[in-house]
Amino acid sequence: MQVGGLDKGNIPSLVGALRARLGSEAVLTDREELAPFECDGLSVYRRRPLAVLLPSTVEEVQEILRLCGAHRVPVVARGAGTGLSGGALPLEDGVLLSLARFNRILKIDPLNRSATVQPGVRNLAISDAAAPHGLYYAPDPSSQIACTIGGNVAENSGGVHCLKYGLTVHNLLALKFVTMAGELVEIGSNAPDAQGYDLLALMTGSEGLLGVIVEATVKLLPRPERAQVILAAFGDVRRAAEAVGEVIAAGIIPAGLEMMDSLAIRAAEDFVHAGYPVGAEALLLCELDGTSAEVSEHVMTVRDLMKKSGATEVRTARDEAERRMFWKGRKSAFPAVGRISPDYYCMDGTIPRKNLPEMLDRIAQLSRQYGLRVANVFHAGDGNLHPLILFDANVPGELDKAEAFGRDILELCVEAGGTVTGEHGVGVEKLDSMCSQFEPAELAQFHAIKAAFDPHGLLNPGKGVPTLHRCAEFGAMHVHRGKLPHPELERF
Amino acid sequence: MADIEKDLQDGVRDALAKKRRLNIVSGNTKTFLGARIEGEAFEVSGHSGIVDYDPKELVMTARCGTSIAEIESALRDANQMLAFEPPRFGTAATLGGTVACGLSGPRRPYAGSCRDHVLGCRMINGRGEILDFGGRVMKNVAGFDASRLMVGAFGTLGILLEVSFKVLPRAASSLTLVHECSDPVGYLNSLSASPLPVDAAAHVDGLCYVRLSGSDQAVSEAKQRLQGELLAGGEVFWEGLREQKLPFFDTDLPLWRIACPPASPMLDLPGHWMIDWGASQRWLKSAAETGEIRQKAMEAGGHAALFRGEGFMQPLTGTLLLLHRNLKSAFDPEGVFNHGRLCPEF
Ligand SMILES: Cc1cc2nc3c(=O)[nH]c(=O)nc-3n(C[C@H](O)[C@H](O)[C@H](O)COP(=O)(O)OP(=O)(O)OC[C@H]3O[C@@H](n4cnc5c(N)ncnc54)[C@H](O)[C@@H]3O)c2cc1C
Questions:
Q1: Considering only CA atoms, which residue is closest to atom 50 of ligand 1?
Q2: Strand, helix or coil at B227?
Q3: CATH fold of B171-248, please?
Q4: Is residue B140 classed exposed, middle or buried when 0-12, 13-18 and 19+ CB atoms within 10 A define those classes?
Q5: pLDDT tens, A162-212?
Q6: B5-169 adopts what CATH topology?
Q7: Nearest atom, ligand 1, residue A213 CA
Q8: B68, B94, B93: which is closest to B82 by C-alpha?
């Protein structure tokens, strides 16, 4: 029988060859052994792969890709499996290549302020290793204790400090990756701005479709002399959103500027007791960092701006412990919401900041329309929304309803001139929404980029970019450059 | 200010139909970079004008032919700036050419490069199709990052029609300190490892130049902590460095740009040096052999480009060459754009 171009009779021979090359303990095929790898952080999608491979050397990765290439068996790379878009979801007719054993920090170079690590190293472990040198790695996704740098590069992950310090793409210096043909490629270096096409940028956010990352060199920054966080409570979400614009207009780029709405505030407070004002409709956390003098000056300015924008309460963290506590509440917002609802579905659209107030109104309207609650947590400074749709997968039809609600939100994001994903990636989850954001010629161009690296389409196929056929079937209204086909028609 | 997108698209389609090669020309200020090429000059500077700019969003969208001067003047009115300080090399410099060449100025190591500021683009590919990539928002991971791929591609992948890019507020205060310095690499690196608000640092003819920018407090406090005299009119120095108008650049010798890890010791090459970008970009005026210069740069973990003269691009080999060739044909299968500008074979 043919499976995706593969003759199933070939599978035993492939598995045998992989066992011979990697050793039996590095090739998992038993049902129980495969179970933990069936899904990533988007657990509503599950699939069991043919096998899970656990190589420990670059040569083994090369060999795996050559063998799978020769057998035309698709390969899905996996870091920690915390991805929220199904990027690391296995394929039933493919193998899952786990980078878990690539967990060594190869070099901390304090003089050149960089770290060279294997892809399975956890995000936070880099900052921990750099700390004795007064340095740290800036991108800090909330999942940073678990997620890997390989996954971060593949998703171009962000975090609360990305407003000032950039995303993964801005903090990456060099990569080694293996192509589907088994070739090892080195790009970038500790010397800035390599010549030629910017493959470093292209690989970042490529969701495991172009190559398997086997080493990354990232930039380390000096720890700021001082960081201070301001917590501002608002009686109305709109006012909080407007305050965000005021801070930016004052010429201040905070290290982080995050917003939570009342449901998220209460859930986080119940969970970690951060001291949040539970009666507030919205809360802003604004972190300012720099030299002591600069932080003092900016704290005064921001406090004033918050008050002028109608904050009902403005607090400055009393000490480092309280500052960490304020952040802990924000960083635990997802699991906190997980405690108040059997299931939640996390969205990830980005919009121009000025549309925040209107967007929040529209999400509230949709929430009423679908009869599902929403907790809003987001990177307000850069317009990246994370509405968490609360539902119960055990209630028939609720998952479908949650997904439809999610798609509506993403469509609104495109309509507002934004994008369907700011940092979590397309994976399998947002394939339909991609049809709203891009024209067929643009999608075809993406497929051509993919083919330039992987002509047989064996690396993480079916993710990231929808087929033109799928878009035709999905029949999405293409929202062109923020303009709907019929702007005169009222849409909820 | 005009929108001539349709004309440009027709022009490309016409060239495709007639199998002619195009040499994309905009402000014509950076033709000296990279290889001289054949091909019919295809003027794009007429496609100009700022399309969207809301200072509170920290994002501007402009057509490729918009002059950097016009962009910087609009930004100045809102007390903002292009943080990567692109070298203009002439008043006619345009946004499209700036992005296609991907050059950045003195602030680059502290605020990011040209590509770091690009958020999205609209372009014509080699099939004559108009495509929109990226966005006008700070964060966007939908699809491959085709926009940043255009930066430094020298127009070989398509014609940039519009670019959206991030802009930043100007610092409230800025000043330059200068002092004699015998270990510039050590000194400039010690600055980069400190939390001080340094946003440009260079060394030439025995003198270190350090620019501090930030809030009034931060700058005056940093000034107390650092050595050096206040340089009156410091901006003239940085402008001269950005535009290569300092006396150092007035030379008949080949001018090399050597990028290296910032803490690399000085390379053992004959010639006259100027250190920029906190020591990660070094300019060398030297009559030394190309091979020797490239070899030494490579041994230091960096790369060398002959900035003025043929030999800008270090030749590509192996899988890297293959990927470049494949990407070129993914965007421009007929090879209509800027053939040979980046790489002799395409
Ligand atoms: C509670 C929670 C909070 C989160 N918060 C944030 C946040 O603040 N910001 C944010 O950006 N994300 C966040 N995420 C999402 C997720 O953590 C990130 O996307 C992360 O980068 C995924 O890393 P991972 O190692 O788990 O990758 P995985 O989930 O294993 O894989 C993700 C994708 O990367 C590919 N991949 C993994 N490793 C490699 C490799 N070596 N080579 C090639 N491709 C590879 C996979 O094929 C897949 O497509 C959060 C997730 C959770 C569960």
A1: A143
A2: coil
A3: Alpha-Beta Plaits (3.30.70)
A4: buried
A5: 999 999 999 999 999 999 999 999 999 999 999 999 999 999 999 999 999
A6: 3.30.465
A7: 42
A8: B68
